[in-house]
Amino acid sequence: MKIAFIGLGIMGRPMALNLLRGGHELIVWARRAESMRPLLDVGAQAADSPAAAATDADLVISMVADAPDVEEVMLGAKGVVDALPLRDADAAPLVAVDMSTIAPAAARSIAARLGERGIAFLDAPVSGGEVGAIAGSLSIMVGGDVAAFARAQPALACLGSRVLHIGASGAGQVTKAANQILTGVGVLAVAEALNFAACSGVDAGRVREALLGGFAASRILENHGQRMLERKFAPGFKAWMHQKDLNIVLQSAHQLGVYTPLSAATAQLFNALVGNGQGDDDSIAVLKLLESLSGAAGAVGDAA
Amino acid sequence: MKIAFIGLGIMGRPMALNLLRGGHELIVWARRAESMRPLLDVGAQAADSPAAAATDADLVISMVADAPDVEEVMLGAKGVVDALPLRDADAAPLVAVDMSTIAPAAARSIAARLGERGIAFLDAPVSGGEVGAIAGSLSIMVGGDVAAFARAQPALACLGSRVLHIGASGAGQVTKAANQILTGVGVLAVAEALNFAACSGVDAGRVREALLGGFAASRILENHGQRMLERKFAPGFKAWMHQKDLNIVLQSAHQLGVYTPLSAATAQLFNALVGNGQGDDDSIAVLKLLESLSGAAGAVGDAA
């Protein structure tokens, strides 16, 4: 398949590489020309705009920062829609897949405007981070038309080990938002429980071990809890990205009138973490914030 | 071993039965005489006070409601301490194991006062609920003297499949409190994420399925999430018990000066749930509370 790939950052670059390895033909565009270099070296073509990239493509994939970036590359000047007059009249209708994490409402709005121009748009955010992007083992949550999903499948299969069509347009972003509720609240809850134990003078490692055997067990207690005990605060998933994603949750909840007390409480802690200059730490750094606000008999990671 | 068992409620009765099945000799006491009947029918002896139960026992186990009950059966009139003048002078020192969920500070205080009288006290709260009590598969988290723990082991092995000595006196209750932080916050977080999805018009069951493949995966998303989708609000673990346990967390955090924002936010929801007369529902009923406070495009459990 001929794929236009837009956005070659920490996530986009290894994803694009996996598409090339999967035998797809790749035309890339990135805001910074030097981001394209590693892809061109291994056989991708460069385009000088999203429109140019999309002109001969079967599929467009974007992996950018936030909703305004998606709007710009899809609907802005020299955006994907500008490719339409240049495309072969016999070509199949274009499918655009945005894999960035943006608000569900923004995804639906972009889908509606592209739909009017005959472009099928899928929202397909991912989880699994840089490690999953490199390994091609991302979890991909897709919203939008089922026929368009079927056409995008051969590409998505190169990027993720778990590719699920969730529902109509926006459903992928809603699923990602729900994921960020559970992971954001989950990281803070594990930090709170381990800090509570340490401040009570009890070995937090021993507590984690005990809790992994019961209903408190979670992948976050297992993975992030272990990193808290080792006090390894390097990312992983950066705190400022979790702050951004929780803001998507809170903005959506505001628009829909949905009561989300734990997301709201958790977002405050991420605000404080980013405000304190720790936004580039992993999100487990919420532990340090709790510690700075607590009287401690001991710290998480102290030996028994 | 000759065991005095005090408290024969929903948890205590099946636990006492498992000790009998394990070949231990049992002397039981319960506030309500009729609670003893099922145990006497299968070979337990009745005592007319905790002191009488403890007089010839090697080990005392209590499974009662809250700290004042533990204080009373251990240190009150006709409590376990009153057995001391009646015990054989050659008998090994008595070990008392409280398996109720009470505040860590209360457990330490009781341990100190019993220690002055020569009784070793272990705090050994459990998780796993009535199902685990019946199956003998409880998770048991123990704080206190290691030698006393070794003496209690043969009894505890009949009650739980996972019996862990965590640390000094109080460490078992601290671990249980940490468990209740993660399960209480966890149940509310899963309810919040699924309700967010449903209110956004997305099939919450499909979202749960997608999230189980990533870092959001937890036993609560698996088990409690499924029950939310089936809207089965029968306990399980009653909301008022979770409310009580979160109050232990908040009181301990108050005493120690520990910052516990998610426990505090979650406790408010459980307060409201109990205040609304839903305390006897399972703790997953927090979902109904979120729904009553949200504008919904759909409900958790609706088909896609």
Automatic annotation (TrEMBL), chains A, B:
The answer to whether UniProt assigns keyword Oxidoreductase to this entry is: yes
**Is the NAD keyword given for this protein?**
yes
Give all residue intervals belonging to the 6-phosphogluconate dehydrogenase NADP-binding domain.
Answer: 2-167
Q: Which domain of life is it from?
A: Bacteria
Keywords of the record, alphabetical order, are: NAD, Oxidoreductase
The cross-references to Pfam families, in alphabetical order and at most eight, read: NAD_binding_11, NAD_binding_2
Q: Where is the active site?
A: 176
Q: Give GO MF terms, alphabetically.
A: NAD binding; NADP binding; oxidoreductase activity
Enumerate the InterPro entries for this protein: 3-OH-isobutyrate_DH-rel_CS, 6-PGluconate_DH-like_C_sf, 6PGD_dom2, 6PGDH_NADP-bd, HIBADH-like_NADP-bd, HIBADH-related, NAD(P)-bd_dom_sf
Fetch the PROSITE patterns from UniProt. 3_HYDROXYISOBUT_DH
Chain ranges of the 3-hydroxyisobutyrate dehydrogenase-like NAD-binding domain: 170-290
Q: Which GO terms describe its biological process?
A: organic acid catabolic process
Q: Which PANTHER family match?
A: 3-HYDROXYISOBUTYRATE DEHYDROGENASE-LIKE 1, MITOCHONDRIAL-RELATED
Protein family (similarity comment): Belongs to the HIBADH-related family.
Q: What is this protein called?
A: 2-hydroxy-3-oxopropionate reductase
Query: Species name for this entry?
Result: Rhodocyclus tenuis (Rhodospirillum tenue)
Q: What does UniProt list as this organism's lineage?
A: Bacteria, Pseudomonadati, Pseudomonadota, Betaproteobacteria, Rhodocyclales
